[in-house]
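Late entry, evening session. Most of the bench is empty. Finally got around to the prediction I had been postponing all week. Sequence below, unchanged from the version circulated by S.P.
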Amino acid sequence: MRSAKLSEMKGGWFAGDFSPACLKSKEFEAACKYYKAGAREGSHVHKVATEITVIAKGRAEMGGRVFAEGDVIILSPGDATDFHALEDTITMVVKVPSVAGDKYPA
C-alpha cells in the first residue's frame, strides 16, 4: 500500500500523464478539486479529451448553467466552459485521455 496527500498534487490532479501523480496513465486523468465560494476559472476547451465533472458538494455555474451536488457535466472535445463556485464546492473530474497541453483558452 502507498499513500499520498492531495495537497502534494498540482491543483487537485492526482492521476494522469504528469508529475506529480499517484498513478501515471496516458489513459485518463483524475482530480478532486476544492473551491471557495466566488472562485473562478476562465473559459477553456479541450481539442482531444472528454472531461467529466461531478459536483460532489456545493453549487457552481459552468457555461451559463447552474449545477448542484450530484450533477454530472460531460464536456466533449470542442465544448467550451468556464467555472464559478457559487458556494464552497468540491468537484471530482475525470478527463479521457490524458493529453499534455490539451487545454486552450476559449
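Two things to note before I forget:
The chain has a mean pLDDT of 97.
Residues 11 and 17 are 14 Å apart (CA to CA).
Will write this up properly tomorrow.
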